[in-house]
Amino acid sequence: MPALDAEPGSAAVLLGVAAEPALTAALDRFLRGVERRALRHAELALGNPDDALEALQDGMLRFVKHYRGKPQDEWPLLFWRVLDSCLIDALRRRRRAGRWFSNWFGGAVEDEPDPLAQVPDPREPGPLARLGDAQASAALEAALRGLPHRQRQAFLLRVWEGLDVAQTAAALGISEGSVKTHLFRALAALRQKLEGHL
Amino acid sequence: MNAPRDDRWILRSRALLDESAARLPPARARALAEARERALAQLAPEPRLGWRRGFLAGPALALPALVLALGLGVLLLARQGSLPDAASDLAPAAVVEDSPTTRLLSLPEGELELLATGEAQDLVEDYEFYVWLGNDATR
Q1: Which of A75, A123, A187, B108 has a CA that sits 20 to 30 A from residue A106's CA?
Q2: What's the rounded Cα separation, in Å, for the pair B129 and B111?
Q3: Which structural domain range is residue A185 located in?
Q4: Which residues of chain A have a pLDDT value below 70?
């Protein structure tokens, strides 16, 4: 069975049925290699571990469904692009839920940060806080969670994942200039908060 | 990689992030593996039960259909007189002088057909009366 949504000329299309086991193995290897870091991206963006896992699951499903026929060297950028889209969707859902909640029970101003998003999950001290250097981990966790989404993603993709400016821009769906601006602001905020701790 | 300025805190941050990703609790790692497996399950060939069901059900349905078709064919041929007349086959064994059976077998084809239908049940049950009635009408 040729891969669904596969691009013309892709390995899946050219090899047809015989490509499926190899494609599955390649996707499995790719996802295994990226999933833990992707989960950290989601946890830092969403805070709640269950929401993070759900967003990552959604991202994996979308990636496999729509982009498995793409050349494998394009997979990392596409995966980060899909995951970022899923994280933004989750943040939008949370914001809508926060608006509904505040409209009925609180009457909060719409542009204020969602109060539900600020509530720490009592079950989850934060992955960084699980490490030996508890103080440094907690400081980094708090600082990253305190960044706006675009700044945090620019930092994580550029500094942690090692993408260049153009790749980060493609992964986030923004211009290279925006990446530089977000990264500059993220570094400034993090430096101020972390230099004393790390 | 054209990395940003490698301040000490940036290197430390990267190391902490690496460690946090590597040391997932077992339950979390299992959930992650399950999420990956669910995503890859989309690649499994979809069962096409529709045609398979039809393929398997075909022989089972074909036999009753064949029997029904043969039965209808035989009935049709018998009614058109293509086959040896069952009534005439029975006649030699059943020939008895002036019995109801003899009289039935001696009826014209159209009348026997009329008698064989469900609507003429009363005619069959009270044949003597109708014979009398017919004779009476022709007097």
Answers
A1: A123
A2: 15
A3: 131-198
A4: 1-19, 99-132, 196-198
Q: Are A4 and A49 within one domain?
A: yes
> Residues of chain B with pLDDT > 90: what percent?
19
Cβ-based contacts of A11 with chain B (< 8 Å): none
Q: Which two tokens stand for residue B34?
A: 């399950």
- Chain A contact present for B52, CB below 8 A: no
Q: Is residue B135 in a domain?
A: yes
Q: Phi, psi (5° rounding) for residue A12? A: -65, -40
Residues of chain B neighbouring A3 (CB-CB closer than 8 A): 43
Return the pLDDT at A147. 95
Same domain for A141 and A156?
Answer: yes
- Are A65 and A163 in a shared domain? no
Residues B1, A137: Cα–Cα separation, whole Å: 25
Q: Which residues of A touch B5 (CB under 8 A)?
A: 187
Q: How far is CA A116 from CA A40, A43, A56, A106, B67, in A?
A: 20, 15, 20, 12, 71
Question: What local confidence, expressed as pLDDT, does residue A128 receive?
Answer: 55
Residue of A nearest to B3 (CA): A159
Label residue B134 by pLDDT band (50, 70, 90). Answer: low
For residue B43, is it within any domain?
Answer: no
ipTM, two decimals: 0.76
